[in-house]
Structures are given as structure tokens and as C-alpha cells.
Structure to design on (73 residues):
């Protein structure tokens, strides 16, 4: 089984919806001003701010590249 077809298979639409929901929640937390630096695990990391900024970029990318295909399917 090819690893790329696992997430693009129409039978895995539930997984795509769950991941898209998580990405939207991540974007929502950024918009409302949630302080990720105050999380316990982030305070122990040396580059916590960069770590969460990268997560924001991944979430935006996932929304941009996945939502149109999911909504038009």
C-alpha cells in the first residue's frame, strides 16, 4: 500500500475532516490571541515560539490545499 494514497482515498474522508477541523481550531486559537508560550510543554522548550509558528503555517497550508478538494467533492 502506498503511503500517499492512504490520505487521498475517498474512504478516508472522515480522517480528512478530523484533520481539517484540528487545523481550523489551531487557526482560531491564533486569531483569538491564545498564548501558546504559557503552555507547560512550551515553557520547557528552548524555541517554543518558533515551534508553534511552524504549526500555524502547517495548519494554514493544510486548510488551503485540502479544504477546496473536500468541499467540492
Amino acid at each position: 500500500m502506498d503511503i500517499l494514497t492512504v490520505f487521498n482515498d475517498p474512504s478516508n474522508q472522515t480522517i480528512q475532516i478530523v484533520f481539517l477541523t484540528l487545523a481550523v481550531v489551531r487557526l482560531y486559537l491564533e486569531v483569538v490571541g491564545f498564548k501558546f508560550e504559557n503552555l507547560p510543554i512550551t515553557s520547557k522548550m528552548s524555541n517554543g515560539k518558533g515551534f508553534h509558528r511552524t504549526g500555524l503555517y502547517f495548519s494554514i497550508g493544510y486548510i488551503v490545499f485540502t479544504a477546496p478538494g473536500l468541499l467540492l467533492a
Summary: Residues 38-73 form one domain. The chain has a mean pLDDT of 77. The two ends are 23 Å apart (CA to CA).
